[in-house]
Amino acid sequence: MDNKAIYEAYDWSALKEADLKDKIRKILGIIPEDVQTILDIGCGNGVISNVLGKAYKVTAVDRSEKALGFVKTDKVLASADNIPLPNASFDMVFSSEMLEHLPDGVFEKSVAEMKRLTKKYIFITVPNDENPDKLAIRCPSCGFVYNSPNHLRSFKLTDFEKLFPEFNLINSLAFGKKVRHYNKTLLVLKKRISPAQSWIPYYWMPKEKRETICPKCEHQFENPYRFNLLATTTDVANVLLSPKKPYWLFVLMEKK
Ligand SMILES: [Zn+2]
């Protein structure tokens, strides 16, 4: 998988259970009653798996050895697209904020692994119809444009019907802090008429969160901000066009 070094360099101690309290409570409320075993794919530091592990038999999978160091349940070091476990070994396959990070190829294989490993349910959470270009950064060293949290794709509910035709959608909801969508056409325009330094204002991303590593050339820098009238005007126009909506999309599917 690409960007392994960047993934390993991530501060895995940063994400705490308290940060995801409401989300975890919601997840626990959605898990069907007949579930006993769960496979958590892309568990990161286990912030969710460790809580699930108190009520279920959980196996957590991640490709970062460092991240798995924080995981207290059974764990497997593996990439989501190639998990060395037998077919249909879990009542439910769970995955939270992973699919949006996967590049082409890895993505399709990971979806296939989810289908292969579950006995009955797949439970996925992803950003809710996000426009990843909203947090676009241009690397000053190589010129590559990328999404700050490395989100490579976005999902609507209808995407899951297409990706998982062998499954029925049995529950779905949008949940979490309300964030403003960015109109796609307007964002393309903004990126064309304004310099990259004005794309992400400080009120979207505070100064202490601006340290970034380019996924292409691994150049490490602080993403700057410079006011630009055209960029700000586009942002204001977007407020009129794009409503706020809950940040996450939860999807629960059952094998047909
Ligand atoms: Zn670069």
Bulk shape:
globular
What is the CATH top level name?
Answer: Alpha Beta
Coarse structural class: alpha/beta
H and E string: HHEHEHEEHEEEHEHEEHE
* CATH architecture field: 3-Layer(aba) Sandwich
Instruction: Return residue spans where pLDDT drops below 50 for at least 5 consecutive residues.
Output: none
| CATH topology name | Rossmann fold
Largest sheet: 7 strands, mixed
Please indicate the percent range of residues in DSSP E strands (runs of 2 or more).
25-35%
**Count of the separate structural domains:** 1
Strand order of the largest sheet: 3-2-1-4-5-11-8
Helical content band: 25-40%
Question: What is the name of the CATH superfamily?
Answer: Vaccinia Virus protein VP39
Number of helices in the DSSP assignment: 8
What does this structure look like?
By secondary structure, the protein is an alpha/beta fold. It has 8 helices and 11 strands. The strands form 3 sheets. It has a 7-stranded mixed beta sheet. Strands 6-7 form a two-stranded antiparallel ribbon. Strand 6 and strand 7 (145-147) form a beta hairpin. The longest helix is centred in the C-terminal third of the chain and has 13 residues, at 229-241. The model has no long low-confidence stretch (mean pLDDT 94). The structure holds zinc ion. Zinc ion binds at residues 139, 141-142, 144, 214, 216-217, 219.
What's the topology here?
Elements: H1 4-9, H2 21-30, E1 37-41, H3 49-52, E2 57-62, H4 65-68, E3 74-77, E4 90-96, H5 106-117, E5 118-127, E6 136-138, E7 145-147, H6 157-163, E8 167-180, H7 184-193, E9 211-213, E10 220-222, H8 229-241, E11 244-255
Parallel strand pairs: 1-2, 1-4, 2-3, 4-5
Antiparallel strand pairs: 5-11, 6-7, 8-11, 9-10
This protein binds zinc ion.
